[in-house]
């Protein structure tokens, strides 16, 4: 077995796709029409993943007040997502140039270089090197 997808609740599909694909450099793996499991309302099945990665993100548009409240706070204010860079300095500089909002300066920890950034919704990510 492997971990295939992790859901990330977003406000809307297209801005989230633009952030993950155009800004972070992920690949758009799938963008297909679908229906919600409750109420059978239209939605999209949108999957993005870093190039060469096995695990992807399912960008799930919030459906209802409870899901809307979780946008940007999926890990209760903690870092909930971890993006490993093969060249930390290069990728950090590229993301800064692309306008990614970093909330911490790069630092060295026992597990490597790290800087915390926010995604389009405000979720915290570690860029790791």
Features:
2,3-Dihydroxybiphenyl 1,2-Dioxygenase, domain 1, five-stranded mixed sheet, 129 residues, alpha+beta, 21% helix, four-stranded mixed sheet, 2 domains
What does this structure look like?
It is a single chain. By secondary structure, the chain is α+β, with helices and mostly antiparallel strands. It has two domains: 1-71, 2,3-Dihydroxybiphenyl 1,2-Dioxygenase, domain 1; 72-129, 2,3-Dihydroxybiphenyl 1,2-Dioxygenase, domain 1. It is built from three helices and nine strands; from the N terminus they run βαβββαβαββββ. The chain has helices spanning 13-23, 65-70, 88-97, and strands at 5-10, 27-35, 42-49, 56-61, 79-84, 101-102, 107-109, 112-118, 124-128. The strands form two sheets. Strands 5, 6, 7, 8 and 9 form a five-stranded mixed sheet that branches. The protein is globular. It starts with a strand and ends with a strand. The model has no long low-confidence stretch (mean pLDDT 96).
């Amino acid at each position: 077995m492997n971990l295939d997808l992790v859901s990330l609740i977003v406000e809307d599909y297209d801005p989230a796709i633009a952030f993950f694909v155009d800004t972070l450099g992920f690949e758009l793996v799938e963008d297909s029409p679908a229906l919600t499991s409750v109420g059978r309302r239209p939605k999209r099945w949108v999957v993005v993943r870093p190039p060469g990665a096995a695990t992807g993100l399912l960008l799930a548009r919030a459906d209802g007040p409870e899901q809307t409240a979780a946008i940007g706070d999926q890990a209760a204010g903690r870092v909930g997502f971890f993006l490993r860079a093969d060249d930390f300095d290069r990728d950090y500089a590229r993301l800064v140039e692309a306008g990614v909002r970093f909330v911490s300066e790069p630092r060295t920890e026992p597990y490597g270089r790290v800087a915390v950034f926010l995604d389009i919704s405000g979720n915290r990510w570690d860029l790791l090197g």
